[in-house]
Amino acid sequence: MNTIAEHIADFLKEHAPFDNLTFQELSEIAANIRVINLEKHKTLFQINDVLHDCFYVVASGTVNLSVISDAEETLLNKCHVGDVFGLRPFFAKNNYMMTAKAREESIVYGIPIATFRPFVANNPNVLNFLLESFASNTWNPKDKENFRGKLASDNFFYGEQKNEMQYFQSLTYNRSPLIVKVTDVAKEVALRMTENLSTSAVICENHLPIGIVTTTDMSSKIATGLFPINIPVDAIMSAPVVTVVENVSLAEAQLLMLKNNVSHLCVTQDGTDKSAIKGIISEHDLIVAQASNPGVLIKEIKRSQNPKELRQIRERLSELIQNSINKNIPLSHINNIASEINSAILKRAVELSILELGSPPARFAWLSIGSQGRKEQLLLTDQDSILVFEDVLPDKYRDVRDYFLKLAKKTTLTLEKTGYELCPNGHMGSNMLWCKSLTDWIKQYDSWMNTPGENSTDLSSIFFDLDLVFGEKKIFEALENVIFKNIENNSLFFDFLGNDALRKNSPLTFFKKFVIEEEEPNKDKFDIKTRALMPLIDGARLFALHFNIRGLNNTYLRFKQLAIMDPKNADVYLNCAEAFLILSRFRVNEGLKNDNSGQYINLDELTKLDKEKLKNAFIPMKDLEELIKSNFKLTQFS
What we know:
Low-confidence stretches: 134-153, 155-165
Radius of gyration: 29 Å
Number of helices: 23
Shape: globular
Helix content: 40-55%
Strand content: 5-15%
Distance between the termini: 86 Å
């Protein structure tokens, strides 16, 4: 072993994931490593470059990883000594999605994929390191316990999206694979593959897959003359086949291909080679699937030019949500992704309106209220929004407001065409009641909060779930400051809000039966929104305002934060948080099944176990109700 290779092996053994390998294995890797000197600001690879045949470890210096977002270069991470990066060749065949550039004079080791792959396949710890990194999109999944090395998966998501969605994302694949017999000759199989535009053929015996031949096999074994063209196909097939179950995820499929060094997977009835084949997953299918990840959707939203394109993206989001629900991804994670994509759609709708109308005459803020304001809009529910523009001179007020009313009407129309229904209560920026200057909005909130009894007809609690979608953050913050200033020592307001939270009808009768709708069109159905979710939503909002919790509008996160702020009642809040997720999942399932808001549950379609689960989720509501009564003097509006 030469001195340089020995030095490299000594270096590698101190860093993850190489510390899982023996020194002999590291020596073999080190003997094939390429030592690369990078001058300051020298680029190793950049966005859209063809993938290299190796990945990299920083030996000295610092390498910056960056992407281009909104026409600006955004720094993702700084890779220091021992950090691993450029792993994309392990997981994908399309080009690099980020740029690696030396921040200072640096040395990096290039480790050939072909050399390292056997050690990945044969060492579970190394494979798990890659798997966990890919699933969590962290630089090192062990960082909390071990700071010795970092892993960059080179799988960046725009908008800092959670990679769990891609990890569990289902695949679309060829469900009519080309099936051939063991006795078929290679030439005939090659002709049939060409006719079927197929990159593979599955060799079956007694209807069970025993091997697979690909275009690579044809070129490397037949075209090179290693085997004659009229040889039986079983002589050149790869066996046994690597099989998977039907609902295998994108990341799972990628890792199986990596582990087994194959380019195709056979989908079978039970996931083994002892059951009938149902389809073939190719590397191309994985590349196509990546086009539906959250980052790509947001990128496409930014390029959209009309409501039709936005609608198509929103429909793809629905598919992503459905797949994630089927995979039992935690609803809180799904909410994170969906809310960011919904916000991007709303923002683009405003941008398209501005492009049509011209530059705004004043600064403004478009704010979501209601479910989107709480980042809970998984389904295509109705629009809820307000528009706030900065104060202008009195003689300009009318013209400025007219512009913003036109802007809001165009935006709400675009969103309606995208699939978001208009709010039946008119809670939208296109309504002149909810399109005002900042001063007028401040007066509105002052009136609502300080004399709630006089303005209860137009006061909806959803006006206290605000999220900035587009425009000036300072305008949003000014309005938020007014809200939190007005809650100080304001027992009258909390009296009103508390009674409003308790006014919702009970979900169960005295005899513990579901309270169902008595009139069409939802006769005999259960209103899960009004009778189950809203009491939790209203209670979380009430206590969040009471404890001055800013920046958290999501009901689940509000309850989690309340458990920290008010530890003596933590059990109540945590139980409510869990109940909210359970009830939300019921509603989402109903909505996805019927392509609606999911507000009304058809109880006849629930199993006995589901009905019990639903009833059990109501239990924390009673504890929350008692907590509201004990914390607020609910007399004025009782």
